[in-house]
Design brief:
The chain is mainly α. The chain has a two-stranded antiparallel ribbon. Strands 3-4 form a two-stranded antiparallel ribbon. β1 and β2 (262-263) form a beta hairpin. α17 (308-325) runs antiparallel to α20 and α20 runs antiparallel to α21.
Length: 809
């Protein structure tokens, strides 16, 4: 012990000096900070001997006040006043951070790291500018909680279950966010017989936290219970820029902060974000712990699920997610995350020397919370900067934690950030203003029944694509609880966008494994996630088009990889979401020789999974809705093959349904166009099957794209979002067939956008139809020729031979 103290005496003196400097600079007074309004009344009551009043006046983090109560009584020994109490109750928090710094310094010394690295570790842990701000605003307990959580994980990794449980209990009693450390602590404990160590740690943590919090919870009409309930659902109007929900808020009346200070440029947070923020943090911690258990559960008997390093990294990641997801995020919130990140860098099997990540995170957090605001940056810019580095860092830490290879890790981070940015662009463009006509007219009555708790009414009123509403019912219900019908639609639309983003990331992963450059992958992600067709699908109230397209194309991709069961279920779900997905089923059956019956039964089961509740609720309504789809009503848009039948000289005489010669051409098209599309799909699947070995399996995606393009050409209802499944299938074919950058998808997207958003608004319907037919029919012909691997026409062959002969001469 003496040797350890002698070896680390300089480090101990440095930590003590840094703590004293922090106390001198940050504890100069408590006027106008959180200590004055939240903790001081309780400590004043304790000093005067009113223990019951102390318990009643304690805030939501009253456990921290109870743990530091002895230090509040010490100034009475020498007659100190309120300022002395304020400084003394911060002392154990500073001491905890200093002890952690000394321990880390000792570990770095034993690992042979240079003095500069050890000095930086002490500075990050003790003399951190965020620590100074935590002291100035009156929240030193954040230092105590962060130090206790890191120490609990370190002790758990060494098999000290009881000590780890005790420190974890003290941390939870100090501040409730320490519940996030439960997962890393349990995963770091070695697994003994019957998981006794885990049970002992949990039991002791619960006992310690309960012993500290019980007096606060049992006291009548106390502020602790009310504050804890408020923390659970965060009904407060506090809405800070440094969190992921910031851009979901809106600019309205001038926002005022603490003591009425105006905050120009601040947004007012949506009620749903304020309500789900804190529960979502706990859910994220639980999901991360579960994912890590699934990833590393196959360890040697008696070994811990996570190594010490991974447990510290898991703690750092979940504490960073807390900062991202908390609508109250403040300048001192990143401190526990930085402590955990520093400990992980120090305890790496091969320490890298300087604690670069912890140091960089400190600088970036300081710039986000302090420097930008004092240099005139708007709250929106502060939020964008904060999200840029925290999201990238979260993805990087997660990739290290789940052992993703380095090259894939960097590519995955870039692709993930790109997908997130494009999803944000799409959501901002399509969900900014509540239009969504078709959703409000067709689906809103059913969704309102669901929001009222009437599940039978929801199912009975569902439209023809009711399967997609059943699939998105949890999102609709949650969104409805948070933001009425508009909130329900927004969350449901985000679910559909997420499905497309996942498929885009999967395609980017295929490109990454083939060595494609980042620019090609990002172009692919932008074309799919932020497609104008996808944007208009959401604007028109049909996000289920995105969900069905992602399920359909994803099922075909899995089928090409031999995943029959999953592929069939996804195809069945796609059919239940939107009936046009039936076009993929014949082609899927052709692709699965010997497994066709199994695929058909599983696909039917997937569809019935969503359709069965609808049929049970109201069989007649379900049949009527789908019968209406089979024969299209009198809807005629200019971007389809049959438009010329709508010209004046071919219009029906005496009405829209009949002429003197019998049924009008328009009426025939309306009656038979949808069955014709299905017949064409079956015929093309049979043609592809008949070609046998002449075709390549990857060309099945091109054939699917062709079938979906023909759906757009032959459907009199055709609107811009009908083309999205075609674009998704075309991009998938380009990726799987390794054609490099998705140039065909880019060209098709540009032509579609020009057709619907340039030619249509500024030209006649006849010219719009001509433009559409001019590019879609040749494109369909080329796709048919290539997917069936038909021989090249004679004139092309002769031309190619003459060119080669000329080159030879």
């Amino acid at each position: 012990m003496r040797r350890l103290l002698r070896e680390n005496a300089l480090c101990l003196l440095a930590a003590a000096a840094a703590s004293a400097a922090m106390a001198w600079l940050g504890l100069y007074g408590f006027a106008w900070n959180d200590y004055e309004t939240e903790a001081k009344p309780a400590f004043d009551a304790l000093i005067e001997g009113h223990v019951l009043a102390f318990l009643q006046l304690a805030p939501a983090y009253g456990g921290s006040l109870l743990e530091r109560a002895p230090f509040a009584l010490l100034p009475g020994v020498w007659g100190g006043g309120a300022l002395a109490v304020y400084r003394m109750v911060a002392l154990p928090c500073l001491a905890a951070a200093a002890i952690l710094a000394v321990w880390l310094c000792a570990q770095m010394r034993s690992a042979g790291l240079p003095a500069l690295s050890r000095a930086l570790a002490v500075a990050v842990c003790v003399a951190n500018p965020l620590t100074l701000r935590a002291l100035e605003v009156g929240h030193p307990e954040e230092l105590l909680g962060g130090s206790l959580c890191v120490a609990a994980v370190l002790l758990a990794a060494r098999g000290r279950a009881l000590w780890a449980g005790a420190l974890l209990g003290l941390a939870i009693a100090n501040k409730e966010w320490a519940l996030l450390a439960v997962g890393p602590v349990l995963l770091a404990l070695p697994s003994g017989p019957g998981r006794r160590a885990h049970l002992a740690a949990l039991a002791l943590a619960g006992a310690v936290a309960g012993a500290v919090l019980a007096p606060l919870a049992l006291v009548p009409s106390g502020g602790f219970a009310a504050g804890t309930r408020a923390l659970a659902s965060a009904p407060s109007a506090i809405f800070q820029p440094w969190q992921i929900f910031w851009f979901a808020g809106h600019h309205g009346a001038l926002v005022h902060g603490l003591f009425g200070a105006p905050k120009p440029g601040y947004r007012t947070g949506p009620a749903w974000a304020l309500r789900i923020s804190h529960p979502l943090i706990l859910l994220a911690g639980a999901l991360l712990a579960a994912a890590l258990w699934l990833r590393y559960r196959r360890r040697a008997p008696g070994a811990a699920i996570l190594s010490e390093g991974n447990a510290l990294l898991a703690l750092a990641l979940v504490l960073l997610l807390r900062c991202l997801l908390d609508s109250w995020d403040a300048v001192y919130y990143p401190l526990p995350f930085i402590f955990a990140l520093l400990a992980w860098e120090v305890r790496l099997p091969r320490p890298r020397g300087l604690p670069v990540l912890a140091l960089a995170s400190t600088v970036l957090a300081w710039v986000s919370f302090q420097w930008l605001g004092t240099h005139g940056a708007s709250p929106d810019l502060q939020a964008a900067f904060f999200l840029a580095w925290t999201l990238a860092l979260s993805a990087g830490l997660a990739s290290v934690l789940f052992a993703v290879p380095l090259r894939s890790r960097m590519g995955l981070i870039g692709d993930g950030v790109m997908a997130g940015v494009m999803a944000g662009v799409l959501a901002n463009a399509a969900l900014g203003h509540a239009i969504w006509e078709d959703f409000m007219a067709e689906s809103a009555p059913a969704v309102q029944r669901l929001m009222a708790g009437d599940v039978h009414g929801f199912l009975a009123l569902a439209p023809a694509y009711g399967g997609s509403l059943v699939a998105g019912a949890p999102a609709l219900a949650l969104g409805g609880a948070l933001g009425a019908i508009n909130g329900a639609y927004r969350l449901y639309a985000l679910l559909c966008v997420a499905a497309v983003a996942v498929l885009a990331l999967a395609l980017a992963a295929i490109q990454r494994s083939a060595g494609r450059p980042a620019l090609s992958r990002w172009l692919l992600i932008a074309l799919l996630v932020a497609s104008p067709a996808a944007s208009w699908a959401i604007k028109e109230g049909h996000p289920e088009e995105l969900l069905a397209a992602a399920l359909c194309v994803g099922g075909m991709l899995l089928l090409l990889r031999g995943r029959i069961t999953t592929a069939a279920i996804l195809l069945g779900l796609a059919v239940a979401c939107k009936q046009w997905a039936l076009l993929a089923v014949p082609l899927a059956l052709v692709l699965a020789p010997g497994q066709r019956l199994r695929l058909a039964l599983l696909a039917a089961g997937g569809a019935l999974l969503l359709w069965l509740p609808l049929t049970i609720a109201d069989w007649g309504h379900f049949l009527a809705a789908n019968r209406g789809l089979a024969s299209a009503p009198y809807i005629f848009h200019s971007e389809q093959l049959w438009w010329t039948l709508h010209l004046d000289y071919l219009r029906p005489l005496g009405g829209t349904r009949s002429t003197i010669f019998g049924p009008a051409p328009i009426a025939l098209v309306a009656r038979y166009s949808h069955p014709l599309i299905l017949v064409v799909g079956v015929a093309l699947a049979l043609a592809w099957w008949a070609r046998g070995r002449a075709v390549q399996r990857s060309d099945a995606l091109l054939m699917l794209a062709l079938v979906l393009l023909l759906r757009c050409i032959l459907d009199p209802w055709n609107v811009i979002y009908y083309e999205f499944p075609f674009l998704l299938a075309l991009a998938s074919w380009e990726v799987v067939s390794e054609r490099g950058a998705p140039l065909f998808t880019l060209a098709a997207s540009f032509l579609l956008w020009s057709n619907f958003r340039v030619v249509n608004p500024y030209s006649s319907s006849n010219l719009t139809n001509l433009f559409f037919i001019t590019w879609t029919l040749p494109a369909a012909a080329m796709m048919l020729w290539h997917s069936l691997r038909l021989p090249r026409p004679r004139f092309l062959v002769e031309r190619g031979e003459s060119t080669l002969a000329a080159q030879a001469r």
